[in-house]
Amino acid sequence: MKMITTIQEMRQTMQAYHKQGKTIGFVPTMGYLHEGHVALMEAARKENDIVVLSIFVNPLQFGPNEDFDRYPRDIARDEKIAKEAGVDVLFYPSVAEMYPRPLSVKVVVTERVDVLCGKSRPGHFDGVATVLTKLFHLVMPTRAYFGMKDAQQVAVVDGLIRDFHFPIELVPVPTVREADGLAKSSRNVYLSEKERKEAPALYAALQKAKAAIENGLRDPQAVRALIEDYLTTHTSGVIDYVDVYSYPELKPLDTLAGNIIIAIAVRFTNARLIDNITVDVPS
Amino acid sequence: MKMITTIQEMRQTMQAYHKQGKTIGFVPTMGYLHEGHVALMEAARKENDIVVLSIFVNPLQFGPNEDFDRYPRDIARDEKIAKEAGVDVLFYPSVAEMYPRPLSVKVVVTERVDVLCGKSRPGHFDGVATVLTKLFHLVMPTRAYFGMKDAQQVAVVDGLIRDFHFPIELVPVPTVREADGLAKSSRNVYLSEKERKEAPALYAALQKAKAAIENGLRDPQAVRALIEDYLTTHTSGVIDYVDVYSYPELKPLDTLAGNIIIAIAVRFTNARLIDNITVDVPS
């Protein structure tokens, strides 16, 4: 595995791969790798000649009240995980390397942002789209891998790639789950023992909603009510949102049709959990 | 010469050239081609295997008071000029092809815009940078050609390519001039006979300033005064601006050093003329 920290070396390395006609799978991350990231790397490993992982804690996507400095970092451990997952190139630039001077341009995301978790993080996805634009140009991947755990990010990246005609295939990778259905997350350790037992109710509620839709339910309000009922009955958490939108457009629907997302966020004592499923609704 | 109107065909065509390892020279225009554009195509022809010309009147870069509908168009004539200049691919998409639905992302230019002509055209360069991002991804050129007549646009594109790490070389092409020094422009025909005789004074004033700098002048205010004097004495036009900035950063300078631009705009009765020179000032 090559570890690259400069833009110049990254560019030269990737140009050589492109000249050889290699397919490139790209997994952009902020590091502190967990099983979700490993699933992305494994998917990229299966489908491409070369796998590139980037680790960059991007200051641009942190809000003024979000702690960039305290974001967890462990490059030695990450390097080991990446090597084991079969990564060929680990790109690990410094902030000074990525932002040597104030940017003269930025990407602004104008759709798909003012809902779900994006609602409370103004500018977050501008920072994500801007750094991805930079990274995409440095890596020039054939395919880029993103986890469906953050389905809104996948939707934003879908728009970025499609509207700017990036010659890149977006590959959404299913959320990795515990045996009981709970979506894996580094936040799960902050759950109390009792809360941990309740937490699978998030995915169970989503599955109940899916079954109801498969049985003919088409009213988004009824879907939301069904999930809220289930969560209230089965957990001690406080519901942050239960939302149903078209996917990946993230527009409200009067009646369910086409590809939709059902997304929920529940606050427990020391952890806010999110989960979602997408459903292709026959019209 | 291939004439291509769809994104899909453009993508396939360019992919084939890339697979063959061809170098690609790209000249993005809004059509109604004149000698300035021909100079760009000729420069591209000399340096690349394949020359791509795009003709797209981009609604995104027109302000609410700027008439997108009345922008001159003559594709039959343009096609002939492009063929004669040795263009291989003419990309001529419709607005519906380039913007099939509202964009979910856009490029916002945050530096180099609030000066010179950009000052009175808010959002103009956002539209330019957004459409260029789209076109760059479709063409994936080795080199992109822009005329120095619009030096601010070259500066913005320089920032776009550099800050987003586009793997593209920007090639600024010198302004094409009449024998008497007047920068060629489709607006020159709107000058009266008397004004046409005065108009070479713009370039003459810039040359006088350059000579003074070469003789040691380093005070930007003195350079401006020198030019304003010359223009007032030699033309009946009204000075819109005479500005001196660092180039391509377009920042004000206390004392001249490094690469600088001297840019002027003069209003005649029915035409506003612009001109500029860049000077590398030894410090």
Oligomeric grouping of the chains: homodimer
Rounded average pLDDT of chain A: 96
User: Could you give the order of the helices and strands of chain A?
Assistant: EHEHEHEHEHEHEHHHEEE
What's the helical proportion of residues of chain A? Answer: 25-40%
Uncertain ranges of chain A: none
The fold-level CATH name of the largest domain in chain A is Rossmann fold
CATH superfamily label of the largest domain in chain A: HUPs
CATH architecture of the largest domain in chain A: 3-Layer(aba) Sandwich
Number of strands of chain A: 10
Distance between the termini of chain A: 48 Å
**For the largest interface in this structure, which chains are involved and how many residues does each contribute?**
A-B, 31 and 31 residues
Q: Which CATH class of the largest domain in chain A is shown?
A: Alpha Beta
Strand order of the largest sheet of chain A: 1-4-3-2-6-7
Instruction: Give the structural class of chain A.
Output: alpha/beta
How many DSSP helices of chain A? 9
Main pleated-sheet profile of chain A:
6 strands, parallel
Family (chains A, B): Belongs to the pantothenate synthetase family.
Active site (chains A, B): 37
Binding site for beta-alanine (chains A, B): 61
Protein name (chains A, B): Pantothenate synthetase
